[in-house]
Amino acid sequence: MKRFIDTIKNIFSIEELRTRILNTLLFITVFRLGSFVVLPGVEPDLMAVSTGGLLGLLDTFLGGAFSKASIFALGIMPYISASIAIQLLTMAMPYFQKMQKEGESGRKKLNQITRVLTIVVTFAQGLTYLTTTVPDEALLVPRSIFTVSSIFILISGTMFCMWLGERITDKGVGNGISMLIMIGIVSRFPGSIYQEFASRGSGGILIFVLELVALYFVIMAAVMLTQAVRRVPIQYAKQVVGNRAVGLGQRQYLPLKVNAAGVMPIIFAQALMFLPTAVFGAFAEDSDFAANAATVFADFTSWQYSLLYALLIIVFTFFYTAISVNPQQIADDMKRGGGFVPGVKPGQQTSDYISTILDRITFPGSIMLAVVAILPAFAAILGMTTSFAQFFGGTSLLIMVGVVLDTLQQVESYLLMRRYEGLMKSGRIKGRAESLAV
């Protein structure tokens, strides 16, 4: 405990780090206050937003702002959608690939395109949100006036959230966009714990304690999945510059993450899980089988739902790893830098070697990711409340773990620069932002 207190003192003794932490807290406070400001012309108590499926996932990310018809009802989700679209275009279209290779000027152009696309996505999502999730009985003004005014407010709210995220990244600690998502998720955690404790009653205190212990081990498993890497040794040959030999044949490592796709496979799979219910629901009146199937896939605790969900996550894990990690580019960069994998010929053989390793570690990684994703279903089956069960896995848990690790890594770097001991006695935290050895 004394070591922990000393570390906190060291953190606040660094003026720059102290200022960044206070700035982060200020921006987060503004974000949370904005999530309680309701759109003009809406009675929030009459809102009836689904707590399951994709809408429930969005409401979890936004800390309840979605169900409250807040000015931040869409939050930064349109920006994330636009960023994913630009990322996919960068990998698929030569025009965007060229722009990405232009350095700082290309990055600024991509950011500008992302912002413009964010406005377009916000308009589309906002119009859908206002027409499908805000019922007429919750409106205090005519629908047409409400829709027009709220569209501009939602776009302004999303752009303001994006600005807050950028300010946290520049003036605060951690990645701002990820931080805002995590804060939205964490904001529901105390209420979920209270609901779970209240549901157990005075005679279920032991069960509640066991649930907290189980949650602790699940979080540790998520940390292991996030941090796990396969280190590929890389040898750099000696180079002669003038009359001097540089690069004394040192050996480094290329860290290939077991879960290189992060939470994206879960997000993609979650977005598609409403399709079976919608398809079977369209034929429910004409077929008993379709009606039963629609009911089954609407229940996230059913084994059919969990099986399909897990299979989609495994498929998307391979897909997203394939488009986010390019073995050929890694091999080419190693070759240009004078590096090689011991026992493997530089060039195409190195690319094939890295691809083989990726396939071998991605498969168990995808299975572990699928298990983490369906853990909330098992928690709900065991009798936990739905809100508390969501923290036993899935997107919420992985986002929280990833953001906390990234933030701790940044704080750790400030402490090490001032020659203070870090947050962990065993040494430096290896966060998700660990760069490649090449």
TrEMBL record:
PROSITE patterns: SECY_1. GO terms for biological process: intracellular protein transmembrane transport; protein targeting; protein transport by the Sec complex. Its main location: membrane. It comes from the Bacteria. It is a multi-pass membrane protein. InterPro entries: SecY, SecY/SEC61-alpha, SecY_CS, SecY_dom_sf. The chain crosses the membrane at residues 21-42, 71-92, 113-132, 144-165, 172-191, 203-225, 260-283, 303-325, 361-382, 388-408. The keyword Membrane applies. Keywords: Cell membrane, Membrane, Protein transport, Translocation, Transmembrane, Transmembrane helix, Transport. It is found in: Cell membrane; Membrane. One of its GO terms (cellular component) is plasma membrane. The central subunit of the protein translocation channel SecYEG. Consists of two halves formed by TMs 1-5 and 6-10. These two domains form a lateral gate at the front which open onto the bilayer between TMs 2 and 7, and are clamped together by SecE at the back. The channel is closed by both a pore ring composed of hydrophobic SecY resides and a short helix (helix 2A) on the extracellular side of the membrane which forms a plug. The plug probably moves laterally to allow the channel to open. The ring and the pore may move independently. Component of the Sec protein translocase complex. Heterotrimer consisting of SecY, SecE and SecG subunits. The heterotrimers can form oligomers, although 1 heterotrimer is thought to be able to translocate proteins. Interacts with the ribosome. Interacts with SecDF, and other proteins may be involved. Interacts with SecA. Belongs to the SecY/SEC61-alpha family. This is Protein translocase subunit SecY.
